[in-house]
Each structure stands twice: as C-alpha cells, then as structure tokens.
Amino acid sequence: MSTKLLTRVHGYIPRATRIAAFGAPLVAFSTSALAQTVSGAIDPATGLSNLAPYFLTLVAAAAVLIAAWKGTHAVAEGRSLGPSIVGLVGGLALAFGGYYVMSKYGVSTAT
After folding, report:
1. pTM of this prediction?
2. Percent of the chain with pLDDT over 70
C-alpha cells in the first residue's frame, strides 16, 4: 500500500454527496409547485367514467388471453388446468367487479 495520499484516492464520491450536490441547486432555485393553480382540468370522476369501459374491457380480454395461453401450456406439459381457470375467474372478477364498484360509488356509468 502506498503512503502517498494522491495514489490512495480513487476518485470515489459517496452517493449521498452526489445526490446532495445535484439536488441542492434544484431545490434552492425552483419555484414551489404547490403555489401554482391549474384551470380547465377534467375532474377524475369524468375521466374515469369516460375511460373505464375501455380499460376494463382490455383487462378482461387480456385475462382471457393469458388464461388460455397459460392453460394450454399447462395441459401440454401434463399439469392441471385448474390454476389457469382460477386465475381467469379472479381476473374477470377484478375487472368487472371494479367496474361495478366504481358505478356504485358514482364514478362510472355502469348499470
């Protein structure tokens, strides 16, 4: 081991020091995001009521496709089809149950 100071320093700067050196000017010279106002936005209930049918339909379709894929591979490998069916039922319950719960809370327009 060398006794010279410059050969022992490998240029390592601790992570906390790097974060503080980069983050301190950002915090010091930035304006507060809480002090700004937003106008003309869409409320979350309107956004969810417009987008929920599309998203939840995609979730249901994805659940069916994934269960079919995994079930086919399970049967081809000699395993049980049961876990795939349970996953399909659970996924569909989450998709359509979420839509039902959102309609009961008045977020979406499900019947």
Report:
1. 0.50
2. 68
